[in-house]
Records
---
Amino acid sequence: MIRRSVTAFLVVLVLAGLTTTGVTESQTATPGKGVEILVDVNAAGGKINRNIFGQFAEHLGTGIYEGVWVGPDSKIPNTRGIRNDVVTALKALKVPNVRWPGGCFADEYHWRKGIGPVNARTLTLNPNWGGVIEPNSFGTHEFMDFLEQIGSEAFLSVNVGSGTPQEAAEWLEYLTTNQPTTLAKERAANGHPTPYKIAYLGIGNESWDCGGNMTPEYYLRQLTIYSRFVRNFNPDQQDPSRRMLRIAVGPGGDGPRWTAWTDVIMKAWQQHTWSWDMEGLSLHNYTVVRWPPAYKSVGFAEKEYAEILKSTLEMDGIIKTHSAIMDKYDPEKKIALVVDEWGAWYAQLPGTKPGFLAQQNSLRDALLAALNLNIFARHAERVRMANIAQMVNVLQAMILTEKEKMVLTPTYHVFRMYVPFQDATFVPVSFEAGQYAHEDVTLPRVDAVAAKDTGGALWLAVTNLDPTRPADVVVRMTGLSAKSATGETLTAPAVDSVNTFAAPKTVEPRPISGQVQGNGVMITVPPKSVTVVSVK
Ligand code: AHR
């Protein structure tokens, strides 16, 4: 678990770090002034990997049990035990990958307890998260079935902390071999004769903390062993373009402890021999302001809105810090930086079970999600994967469920609106962000990213952080006249507006379009909003 605090010094650094590739920031913009965004269509850059829209589903609270898995005998409509309403909602997000089974849970997970007849599975404990009983009913086959139902790929975290290389190697053999080994026959007997595809392999989780309190040097020894022996045998994954990517445990923030971690792993990778390798380095960074999480997820004032957004913008500086170390050892950017845990971590909702990390999800979280997705897009060449924590009912979730009820959160809507950015080509934009200030917190007033989708259409995402002033955004394209901008905008009456089971549509996108103005298009984006438009 991350323990971080924000000092005034860091706050200054964050502000300084806001000027990112293709974005210029003015500290003097006039209140109410419009914002001109110049889209440099001729300077399209790298691919925004669809994997940055990945999700994280841990055995934690009601994230899996209730949120995804209700069992085949449940009255809640399901397919082989997996909730139909949740599957339908997730399909619309085109979720590229799901990280599972943890988190801290992964380093105490023993896969053999989650296969075979469901009624005969061992009951174990989940000491990290409330000490509740883990029924193991959602195991390997159920996870792979869930992925198939939503159309996603597997990102498995293997147990390094309390497991062995043999246990992890056997799990991968069970999943992926097409040869008639005893493990493959067992997989077939459990209902899946053909090998599964495992696209991504996380070698441990937070091995510097809940994953085993390891030093970087000790973890490096584990990494070299696991990366050598945990093999993927799927014949369709032997081609280098389809090979399983191995992701090493990386840092949990910035500061000397974390830069040292990145340095040790990347330096060793630069000198690695044929016998081990990795393709990604993970980064965990939650928006929490200070530990333990105390900010409320609902019922907060503008001060907390501004502070949380300021804190979330630190992501850019943290990525820059670790990218610089990675560039030193890997100038060709072969190793991806994988932000496989990110999002807002607030105080648990009153009355919910300790350790279940249940929180509401407000309009503020929608803006927070957009700001982070924009940061990842600007770092597209290095950040090629990210996983928001977490998918259902836990931390900054897409979906909340209560028995048979389900509600889509503001964060869900942002992920749905950003679908055109999946695998799109990054297009640089320049604009004067202006300022939004509240008490001692100063933030950029707007943020924007653009991309060309796989069909060649141009998309622009604009976030207006200012909770009271709309922004007149004039979009101009280099060398071309913009004639229309149509899409959706997401806002709500208050910064802490939420969707509830009783009122599920308080924060919902609505159509927006712009008007031609000279050789550009003018769109008035509402205060505290996220807007995504297609520009023609
Ligand atoms: O997402 C909740 C927890 O946060 C994860 O289990 C752990 O990896 C991190 O500390």
---
Amino acid sequence: MNKSISDTRGDFKVGCHLSFAGGYAKMVRDALSIGANAMQYFSRNPRGGKSKPFDAEDAGKLLETAEKHRFAPFMVHAPYTYNPCSANEDLRRFARDAMSEDLQLQAKIGRSFYNFHPGSHVGQGIEKGVELITEFLDAVLPYAGDTVVLLETMSGKGSEVGSSFGEIAKIIRAVKNPEKLGVCLDTCHVYSAGYDIINDLDGVLKEFDAVIGLSRLKAVHLNDSAEPFASKKDRHAKIGGGFIGLDAVARIVNHSKLRGLPFYLETPNELEGYAGEIKLLRSIRKGD
Ligand code: FE
Ligand code: FE
Ligand code: ZN
């Protein structure tokens, strides 16, 4: 482990998406080796295969290390194959059963966020989409334990639900257990959805507060965008390597309304690239 990196850690929680292939202890070692104190991983194979059997000893090592190094809550990401608002009942049931299982497993570990994509309404319309996502959440949230389930802000590609703050607010208002829900703001997605976080970050956060409420905002997916503003396309770029740019990223990680949140990178990188980005972000962060 690079000691000089870990020694500079203040309250800035930053990390990235990691592979769960080697288990929990390996994953948190990887996080430490790149100077991270936050980490995200898929709850199971991203294409939605069977989850691994729970290894309590391995999970214990994860918790011990995460506590010792004051990690942000673990960010568990649902596989992309879950579509809570599919027109096909079998696909909706698959998503519901798999996410219920994921949540039960995560409740055993604790100190976690569980992030999911609200889904694509596939031509049924936003209203129907919101209705199906609400039904879905009413079925799965009782399994969440103390995990906070996060709706991710989406780019709006195809028929994605959740590319406007209004759609997310509607879902949160409609569910039976809103206290279990939060929001994860993906910088690439909101930018390509048409929220101008480069020129009007204050205005975007004001709108978020008015429509959803900033107390719901629990985490940031920090990504640059390989697609232009309001393109409704979802293609992540390395930090400073896309249309958002490093100056805007610096304002984001230092903004008074965001700086207390954990930041999770989902940029096209291997471990070494992530280490470089985390180091860069720590260097542009002010005041801690
Ligand atoms: Fe995502
Ligand atoms: Fe994301
Ligand atoms: Zn994305």
